[in-house]
């Protein structure tokens, strides 16, 4: 069995950690976790889809290395990132009688990573956790960087903490069981790295995206490593999003507003919202004369060629208005003195932050978009 593995490093002083990526690296969980743990005890948090596939395997590898393994399994899906599920998760873990040396392990996608990391940040005033991401989205984005949290009635990810993992273990083989819709949703965050600062990577994705989605293991590994390296570099410069880290939010101010409006029940996945949100960012910039319209068209063409959503017309949730979406955008964590910080684009590979967007211009764009999507 191949275990060709690569290691990247997230450089954050005493909170630094490795990202270990490769096929079948799950088998190495015991030897990789053991030196990092403060005690031999780990609690694995997973979801109802992932647990039947990988929980026993992971536990087995940990037990082979002399570690003890308990688990909590949450329902699958975005709705799990709620205050009530968070409360239940904390109570369930506390009922196990954990100590400060106990570590949590997030085994699953971004939902499990986000809620588990947040639980780790809060339990006993902070315990360690390890990320074992099993979706493309979580392998290229959510497992790295320490943003943890849950959704609130007011909006997406509004309750949380920065809490870095001790290790990210990416077994690229786990993507073989991932449904195609989820793979494509994760691919949106891969495309994001090209758009925000690496036009060459975007061109590489235009060339290789289809084969990657179709299952080429080597291309997947390359794209995951490239994405993680880009994210690690940004996070090392700006751990708590005082500046440059906000670029990782390209497409998210629009995307999170759409997610909030669709509810968190699976009608619109996070990555799908990001796909549409990035196209909206390019369209808005083209309308404002900030970016050539051809760049947005090129982006759309690539996303459409893979079967990804690029506009609102296909979505089952359709009750939105420009005012409603703008109200949701005002809940964005990048709002300062009542103004949203937007991630805008000059071209593919050239994103920048702006607080100059006028409400009237945004409303004109959204009104026009909504009219087009209902036509
Ligand atoms: N913290 C961050 O920096 C960050 C970054 C990006 C996204 N996010 C968050 O991540 C979440 C989305 O993550 P996601 O797209 O991974 O969704 P997810 O965690 O809901 O996983 C998607 C679906 O795939 C299933 N699944 C996971 N791994 C599988 C596998 N290997 N085989 C079969 N099924 C599998 C899950 O059970 C779920 O049904 C959102 O809440 C988003 O806000 C956070
Ligand atoms: O890590 C970051 O920083 C990101 O913005 C990555 C995003 O892909 C991710 O969706 C993140 O959770 C959004 O952050 P938020 O602060 O807008 O909730
Ligand atoms: Zn995202």
UniProtKB/TrEMBL annotation:
UniProt keyword annotations, A-Z: Amino-acid biosynthesis, Aromatic amino acid biosynthesis, Cobalt, Cytoplasm, Lyase, Metal-binding, NAD, Nucleotide-binding, Zinc
Superkingdom as given in the UniProt entry: Bacteria
Pathway annotation from the record: Metabolic intermediate biosynthesis; chorismate biosynthesis; chorismate from D-erythrose 4-phosphate and phosphoenolpyruvate: step 2/7
Annotated ranges, domain 3-dehydroquinate synthase C-terminal: 186-335
Cofactor binding description: Binds 1 divalent metal cation per subunit. Can use either Co(2+) or Zn(2+).
GO terms of biological process kind: amino acid biosynthetic process; aromatic amino acid family biosynthetic process; chorismate biosynthetic process
PANTHER family xrefs: 3-DEHYDROQUINATE SYNTHASE (PTHR43622), 3-DEHYDROQUINATE SYNTHASE, CHLOROPLASTIC (PTHR43622:SF7)
Cofactor: Co(2+); Zn(2+); NAD(+)
Residues given in the record as NAD(+) binding sites: 110-114, 134-135, 147, 156
Main subcellular location: cytoplasm
Lineage of producing organism: Bacteria, Pseudomonadati, Pseudomonadota, Alphaproteobacteria, Rhodospirillales
Catalytic activity from the UniProt record: 7-phospho-2-dehydro-3-deoxy-D-arabino-heptonate = 3-dehydroquinate + phosphate
GO molecular function: 3-dehydroquinate synthase activity; metal ion binding; nucleotide binding
Protein name as it appears in the record: 3-dehydroquinate synthase
Family according to the record: Belongs to the sugar phosphate cyclases superfamily. Dehydroquinate synthase family.
EC class (word): lyase
Function comment: Catalyzes the conversion of 3-deoxy-D-arabino-heptulosonate 7-phosphate (DAHP) to dehydroquinate (DHQ).
Annotated Zn(2+) binding sites: 189, 252, 270
């Amino acid at each position: 069995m191949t275990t060709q593995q690569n290691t990247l490093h997230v450089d954050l002083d005493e909170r630094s950690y490795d990202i270990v990526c490769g096929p079948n690296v799950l088998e190495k969980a015991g030897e990789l976790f053991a030196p990092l743990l403060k005690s031999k005890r780990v609690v694995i948090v997973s979801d109802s889809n992932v647990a039947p596939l990988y929980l026993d395997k992971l536990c087995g590898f940990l037990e082979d290395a002399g570690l003890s393994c308990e688990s909590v399994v949450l329902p699958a899906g975005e709705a799990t990132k709620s205050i009530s599920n968070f409360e239940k998760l904390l109570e369930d873990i506390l009922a196990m009688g954990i100590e400060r040396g106990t570590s949590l392990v997030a085994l699953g996608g971004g939902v499990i990573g986000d809620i588990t990391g947040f639980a780790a940040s809060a339990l006993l005033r902070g315990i360690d956790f390890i990320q074992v991401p099993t979706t493309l989205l979580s392998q290229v984005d959510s497992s790295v960087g320490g943003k943890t949290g849950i959704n609130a009635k007011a909006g997406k990810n509004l309750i949380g903490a920065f809490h870095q993992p001790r290790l990210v273990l990416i077994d690229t083989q786990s993507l073989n069981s991932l449904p195609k819709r989820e793979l494509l949703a994760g691919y949106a965050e891969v495309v994001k790295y090209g758009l925000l600062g690496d036009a060459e990577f975007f061109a590489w994705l235009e060339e290789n995206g289809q084969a990657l989605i179709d299952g080429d293991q080597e291309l997947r590994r390359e794209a995951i490593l490239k994405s993680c390296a880009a994210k690690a570099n940004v996070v090392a410069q700006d751990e708590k999003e005082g500046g440059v880290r906000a670029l990782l939010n390209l497409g998210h101010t629009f995307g999170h507003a759409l997610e909030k409006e669709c509810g968190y029940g699976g009608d619109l996945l996070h990555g799908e919202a990001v796909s549409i949100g990035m196209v909206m960012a390019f369209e808005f910039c083209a309308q404002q004369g900030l970016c050539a319209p051809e760049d947005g068209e090129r982006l759309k063409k690539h996303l459409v060629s893979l079967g990804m959503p690029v506009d609102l017309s296909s979505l089952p949730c359709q009750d939105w208005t420009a005012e409603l979406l703008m109200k949701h955008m005002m809940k964005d964590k990048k709002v300062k003195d009542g103004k949203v910080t937007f991630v805008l684009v000059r071209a593919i590979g050239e994103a920048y932050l702006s607080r100059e967007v006028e409400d009237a211009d945004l409303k004109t764009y959204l009104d026009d978009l909504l009219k087009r999507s209902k036509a």
